[in-house]
């Protein structure tokens, strides 16, 4: 809204005063949404809440109160919103609101139970009976790998089983002092010839996720390279790297 939502007439009344006095709920909502002051006072001290209460527009009253209208402010002639309430519904609304803000509400909160006490499946049932004691719970275990050698980073590939992990030949080669795939196959054995994957560099960045940072670091890749070679991280690879595995129990 490019215009002031609260222009005043000669008596100090704003559009919000008029909408509240005539029961135009949608207009009241729009004016408040666009910044109309809920507490604007006319020259006589009348505020929008006084107008809504005097005319019994309960939905507008609720809306004004939700925007922070003060239910205790009086007009310059001494009329509070409560004193202007003419019908039982409006009086009850104002009384309950005043009791709430003063901490004297006589209306108790009621919560629906999720448990039906008459349900035959719950009668004579101890819901805590089968909870295992803390000492019977399975402890968490963490597998840790250790080697005195410099160890490579481990990668998982998108779309591959999460149990399959891979190392970069560019990382493992210098550690094992091999420069070619055939040299590494000689150390691994011919049965591991299929444990290699060649990927374009762009595919590697799209598919690979470093799942364990062991020690080599992340500056091993040549940014000018067009492809990378991955080696499956098998027990044989762990053996060549002198990696020991041990389990730390959470107990």
Automatic annotation (TrEMBL):
Keyword annotations of the record: ANK repeat
The family database entries (InterPro entries) matched by this protein are listed as: Ankyrin_rpt, Ankyrin_rpt-contain_sf, BCOR-like
Q: Name one GO cellular component term.
A: nucleus
The ANK repeats lie at 11-43, 44-76
GO molecular function ontology, one term from the record:
transcription corepressor activity
GO biological process terms, semicolon-separated? negative regulation of transcription by RNA polymerase II
Highest taxon of the source? Answer: Eukaryota
Name the family.
Answer: Belongs to the BCOR family.
Name of the protein this chain belongs to: Uncharacterized protein
* The species this protein was found in: Clastoptera arizonana
List the top taxonomic levels of the source.
Answer: Eukaryota, Metazoa, Ecdysozoa, Arthropoda, Hexapoda
């Amino acid at each position: 809204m490019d215009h002031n939502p609260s222009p005043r007439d000669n008596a100090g009344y704003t559009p919000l005063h008029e909408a509240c006095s005539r029961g135009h709920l949608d207009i009241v909502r729009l004016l408040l949404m666009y910044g109309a002051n809920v507490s604007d006072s006319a020259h006589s001290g009348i505020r929008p809440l006084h107008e809504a209460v005097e005319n019994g527009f309960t939905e507008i009253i609720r809306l004004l109160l939700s925007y922070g209208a003060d239910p205790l402010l009086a007009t310059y002639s001494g009329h509070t919103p409560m004193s202007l309430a003419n019908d039982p519904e409006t009086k009850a609304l104002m009384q309950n609101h005043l009791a709430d803000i003063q901490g004297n509400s006589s209306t108790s909160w009621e919560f629906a139970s999720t448990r039906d006490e008459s349900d035959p499946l719950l009668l004579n049932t101890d819901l805590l009976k089968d909870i295992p004691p803390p000492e019977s719970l399975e402890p968490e275990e963490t597998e840790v790998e250790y080697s005195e050698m410099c160890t490579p980073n481990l990668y998982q590939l998108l779309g591959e089983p999460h149990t399959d992990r891979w190392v970069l030949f560019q990382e493992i080669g210098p550690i094992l002092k091999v420069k070619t795939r055939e040299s590494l196959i000689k150390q691994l054995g011919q049965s591991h010839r299929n444990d290699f994957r060649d990927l374009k560099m762009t595919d590697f960045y799209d598919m690979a996720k470093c799942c364990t940072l062991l020690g080599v670091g992340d500056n091993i890749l040549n940014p000018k390279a067009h492809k990378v070679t991955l080696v499956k991280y098998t027990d044989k690879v762990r053996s060549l790297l002198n990696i020991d595995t041990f389990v730390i129990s959470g107990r």
